[in-house]
Design goal:
With about 250 residues, this protein is of the alpha+beta class. The chain is built from 4 helices and 14 strands.
Length: about 250
């Protein structure tokens, strides 16, 4: 992966008198938070499984939706399906989002997932990579990416959406809300993403074992750390993935 984490994006403008109400009934977060800045959210299936994650940012009376290029066509199809007769217009913008971790340009929005992830800008200005190692940042803060940690089998709470400010449990109904709420009210999650320490070689997708039991799957790696999908009841302080040794929690984690 490149330093920018290979994350091409597409930006869709959602406008019309029903735009906010339309989004509020579909996405996992409360769109009223747009008054304060960017919002991170997801769209789910009725069964509570992941469809797409994206950023919503205010754009005058409209909203910009910033989604991974690979997910954009399917997401647009679903949005149009749900639109029915609502006064909502969906249009491609051609905007290429910029992001960085240094001083934010005027008009940029703080990444709502974690302060370390810097800012995102939608002013249409062309800008190069600011040198940030996005893979290392993702791994350090256990931030999932579409198509890697986030797949059609993902439940968003297992992917850390509560920690990443991507879900609101007080906003009311949205597609997939019932399943997500049930998982939230369990005492604890049995499976989910975690950052682990790693020594040795193992490709992404390698099965993780703890003793004789399968304990999870190795996902994105950056140096001596990696994101893993773990069964927490089987995870051990030392595990293996191929020829690599994993440590969980990673050294120094608190």
């Amino acid at each position: 992966m490149s330093a920018t984490d290979g994350d091409p994006r597409r930006v869709i403008r959602i406008s019309g008198s029903d735009a906010l109400e339309f989004l509020q009934g579909l996405v996992t977060n409360d769109v009223r938070k747009l008054e304060a800045g960017a919002v991170y959210a997801a769209m789910l299936t009725p069964q509570g499984k992941y469809v797409a994650d994206f950023f919503l940012v205010p754009d005058g009376e409209a909203v910009l939706l910033d989604v991974a290029e690979a997910q954009a066509d399917d997401l647009l199809k679903r949005l149009r399906m749900y639109k029915l007769r609502a006064d909502v217009t969906l249009e491609e913008t051609g905007i290429s989002p910029r992001r960085g971790t240094g001083e934010a340009p005027d008009g940029a929005f703080a990444d709502p997932r974690h302060p370390a992830l810097g800012w995102r800008a939608y002013d249409g200005t062309e800008g190069g990579d600011d040198g940030t190692d996005w893979v290392a940042l993702r791994v350090a803060h256990c931030v999932p990416q579409a198509g890697v940690e986030l797949t059609p089998d993902t439940f968003i709470l297992e992917a850390g959406f509560e920690r990443l400010n991507g879900v609101d449990f007080r906003k009311g109904c949205y597609v997939g809300q019932e399943v997500t709420a049930r998982m939230h009210h369990k005492t604890e999650l049995r499976k989910g993403l975690a950052t682990v320490g790693i020594e040795g070689e193992a490709p992404e997708g390698t099965e993780i074992t703890a003793g004789e039991k399968v304990a999870g799957t190795l996902l994105t790696r950056a140096g001596d750390r990696a994101i893993a999908y773990l069964r927490f009841d089987r995870a051990a302080p030392e595990m293996r993935a191929g020829d690599a040794v994993l440590r969980y929690p990673e050294a120094g984690a608190g």
